[in-house]
Structure formats: C-alpha cells, structure tokens
Design brief:
Blueprint (H helix, E strand, L loop, with lengths): L12 E4 L5 H12 L3 E6 L2 H12 L6 E5 L5 H14 L5 E4 L15 H29 L4 E7 L10 H22 L4 E7 L5 H12 L6 H11 L8 H12 L10 E3 L8
Parallel strand pairs: 1-2, 1-4, 2-3, 4-5, 5-6, 6-7
Helix pairs in contact: 1-8, 3-4, 4-5, 6-7
This protein binds NADP nicotinamide-adenine-dinucleotide phosphate.
NADP nicotinamide-adenine-dinucleotide phosphate (NAP) binds next to helix 1, strand 2, strand 5 and helix 6.
C-alpha cells in the first residue's frame, strides 16, 4: 500500500442518515473521529441515543442523535430542523439509510413494496438533498453531499429487482442533481459498494447459512468476500474512507462521480 491520508473535519457539521449500524455507523464514526460535529439518525430511538453517546467520545466535535423515519417527508424536515438548531449550519449530508425489500420477482412484488423502497432509498435521498442544498445556498456554504448506492444499481439482471431499480435511480439523480449543485459551489457524489459487513448483510448471509447444514453466517460472508477480485468482504471503514475523501478539499474538483468501493466487485 502506498501513501497515507489523514483528515481533519473540525468545524464541519455532518448529518449521516441510517447511522446506527453497518456502513452508516462507520461513516459517522470516521467523521466524529476526524473532529466533525455529527448528527446520527435511524428510526430506533434507543439505538440513536446509544450511538450518539458512543461517538461523542471519539473526537473534539459534538455528536447528537435524532430518531426519524426517512420514508416520511415531515420526519426529514424535523431531522434537518433539529440538526440545524442544535449543531448546524450543516456542511455535509451523507444519504445512507436504505431498505432491502425481499421480493423474489418484480412480477410478484407489491406496489406497497415499491413505494416503501422508493420512499426510503430514493425520495428521502433526493428530498434531504434538496432541503440541505437550499440551506447551504442561503448561507453560502460550499458543502458536500454523498449518496450511498449499490453495485446492484449497475446490474441489469440478478435478484433484488426493486432494490436494484432504486439504486439505479440514486445513480441517475446523483449525476443530474450534481450538475445543478456544482453551479452553486456544492459537490454531490456517490459511493457504490457491494458486499460490505453490516447488519443487513449478516441477516442475508444468515438466511443462506440456515439452508446449508454445517455452515455459519461467517462461512457465507467469507465465501462472498473470497469471490471479490480483491479477495475480501468490504468493511464499513472502506466506505467511510471514500466519504472522507469525497467531502474533503482533496476532492474539491470532483462532482457527480460514483466511486466504486467494492473490492473489484464492480468489474464482475
Ligand atoms: N452492506 C452491503 O453489502 C451494501 C451493499 C451495497 C449498498 N449498501 C448500501 O449501504 C447503505 C447502508 O446499508 P447497511 O448494509 O450498512 O445497512 P444496515 O446495517 O442494515 O443499516 C441500515 C441503517 O439504516 C437505518 N434505517 C433503515 N430504514 C430507515 C428509515 N426509514 N429511516 C431512517 N433510518 C433507517 C437503520 O436503523 P433503523 O432500522 O433503526 O431505522 C440502520 O441504522 C444502504 O444505502 C445500502 O443500500 C450496502
């Protein structure tokens, strides 16, 4: 490995959605560790409080938690209002929260599944970005927005049709909104990943292990990691490193990019 990067985010304030677990937790911890003020979010209030307290101990910044269900527009407004009034102004938004519908086929999936998936995975990312962009523009903040997307959004076949379609939509709105934002001095980019260790991935691996006598969740995860060209599963820190790069001055000329952080899974 050549080169080494360290980041300093003192004086910056970040909202990280879906940050009590997995990738979001990794991103929020890395930002807190780099001295940013951080707003932790998820639906489960007890997890939000616990995570905020844990991360508050990391760096020099303040970490608060706001429980909010991002499938609802009024909850996104409340999350942003609380963030701005308690630790704002906001210079970083990481749109990370997502749901993974379990349909086997897009023919059988219900419209309710479609709406739930699109509301959290796409509409919430777009609406939060719109609101934060307005906040940044009126305060002349040259901020950064990062959307978390998935390799599934690049694929045209395979399982998880609704989830894949939602992530393809995230890629599309990242390109289009990044252009409008760049003209206001705000940079929007995305990080796309594949199999990264998280609560949801473990749940899926556990389901598969249950059908394979003698195999554990860790066996399945190891098998998935070994299939990536770089030979291992993603870690939340891998995605956090990409977010810290994209929000930093090292990426000041980067807008509308989808950075693939998936151990080469994007090549398969
Ligand atoms: N892990 C992977 O292999 C992988 C691969 C590709 C892309 N991704 C993407 O990475 C991101 C994070 O996934 P993850 O695997 O780290 O998931 P995870 O461990 O299951 O965490 C999801 C987080 O989002 C929160 N959340 C879920 N629904 C929410 C809602 N409606 N409003 C607010 N918060 C909500 C969850 O908390 P509550 O349940 O308490 O709300 C939790 O904090 C997602 O965008 C996902 O699509 C992950």
């Amino acid at each position: 490995m050549s080169g080494r990067a360290t980041y300093e985010y003192g004086g910056e304030t970040a909202i990280v959605t879906g940050s009590t677990s997995g990738i979001g937790y990794g991103i929020a911890s890395a930002l807190a560790d780099a001295n940013a003020d951080v707003v932790v979010n998820a639906r489960t209030a007890s997890d939000v409080e616990e995570t905020a307290a844990d991360l508050d101990a990391l760096g020099d910044g303040t970490v608060i938690g706001v429980a909010a269900d991002l499938s609802r527009r009024d909850e996104i407004d409340r999350l942003i209002d609380r963030a701005v009034s308690e630790v704002g102004p906001i210079s970083i938004l990481v749109n990370n929260a997502a749901v993974w519908p379990e349909e086997e086929s897009m023919i059988d999936a219900s419209l309710d599944d479609w709406e739930r998936t699109m509301n959290v995975n796409v509409r919430a990312q777009y609406y939060a970005s719109k609101q934060i962009a307005r906040h940044m523009i009126t305060r002349d903040i040259a901020g950064s927005i990062v959307n978390v997307t998935s390799q599934t959004g690049d694929r045209r076949t395979g399982g998880r049709g609704l989830y894949g379609a939602s992530k393809t939509a995230v890629n599309g709105f990242t390109w289009r909104m990044a252009y409008d934002l760049a003209r206001e001095g705000i940079r929007m980019n995305a990080v796309s990943t594949d199999v990264t260790d998280s609560r949801q991935l473990r749940r899926e691996a556990g389901r598969i292990a249950a059908d394979r006598p003698g195999q554990t969740t860790d066996d399945v995860l190891e098998e998935w990691g070994a299939k990536r060209p770089l030979g291992r599963l993603g870690r939340p820190e891998d995605i956090a490193d990409a977010v810290l790069f994209l929000c930093s001055d090292a990426a000041s000329y980067v807008a509308g990019s989808i950075l693939r952080v998936s151990g080469g899974g994007n090549l398969q």
